[in-house]
C-alpha cells in the first residue's frame, strides 16, 4: 500500500498519474474528495481529512508500506517551523505504530546551510523529525520551483514583467514539479531501498532572474523584464495579500539564503533532471500566460 498526501497539489496529482497503471494499491488523504477527478476516486482508497489530524493519519497509514509526505504551505500560519512540525508530528506515531517501511518527503536543497533560511529551514526541521523514527527515508531536495512563476502569469502577460526578492544577477537553481513527481513515483514503486538519504532534483539550468526574463521574452515573443522587489517591499506586499508576518518573513529569509548560495553545494554534485527552463516556458508558462 502506498499513501499519498496532498494528492491534489502540483506534485501529488502528477504522482497519482504515474501510479495509475501500477499493481500496488494506493490510498490518499484529502480534505475534499470532490477535488479528485472521478476516475481517480474509483481507483484509490480515500481517507477524508487533513494529514495534520492524528486520527486521519493513523487511519491512512494502517497497512501502508510507503508514504509520500508533503507539508502544504499555509500563508496564514504564524510560525513557519511550527507549521511544518505541527503537520509532521502526527505522522511520527503513525509511522512507528503501523510499521511503515519507507517515506519519501518533499524537502529542499541546502540542508548543510549555516543560517536561517526561512521556509527551507522549516523543511530541514521536518527531515530531522522523520529521520528520528528510524524509518527508511528519502528527502527529495529541490531548489526554486518553476511553477512559482505561474502566480505572476497575469503580470507577465499584461505588463511584460515579473518580480522576486532575489538578486537579479545571482544564478538561481530551478526545478519543474513534473520532474519531482517522476522521481518520487519511482521511489514509491521501488520496494528495495532502505536507510536514510537525500535525492537532489533540479533542472539543468542555473539562471539569474534576468536570464529567466530573457528566456521568457524569447518564448513568449515579447519583452519580459525582471524587477527586483526589495525585501521590505516584498514583505509588505505579502502582508497585503493576507500572509501572516511569520510566513512573509520566512519567504524573505528564504530568498536571502538563495542569494547566499544555499543550493550550490548539493547542486554541483547532482545529476540534473530533464526539464530545462526554456522547455518549461514553452510547455507550461506560455499557455498559462495566453489563458
Task: Explain this structure.
With 291 residues, this protein is an alpha/beta fold. It has a domain at 2-144 and 175-200: Rossmann fold, CATH 3.40.50.720. The protein is 44% helix and 18% strand. The chain is built from twelve helices and twelve strands. The strands form three sheets. It has a seven-stranded parallel sheet, with helices on both faces. Strands 7-9-11 form a three-stranded mixed sheet. The chain has a two-stranded parallel ribbon with strand order 8-12. It is globular, with a radius of gyration of 19 Å. The N and C termini lie far apart (38 Å). The mean pLDDT is 96.
- Summed up, the helix count is 12
Q: What structural class do helix, strand and pairing data support?
A: alpha/beta
Look at the structure and name the CATH superfamily of the domain at 2-144 and 175-200: NAD(P)-binding Rossmann-like Domain
Q: Could you please say which CATH topology of the domain at 2-144 and 175-200 applies here? A: Rossmann fold
Features:
291 residues; 3-stranded mixed β-sheet; alpha/beta; Rossmann fold; 44% helix; 12 helices; 7-stranded parallel β-sheet
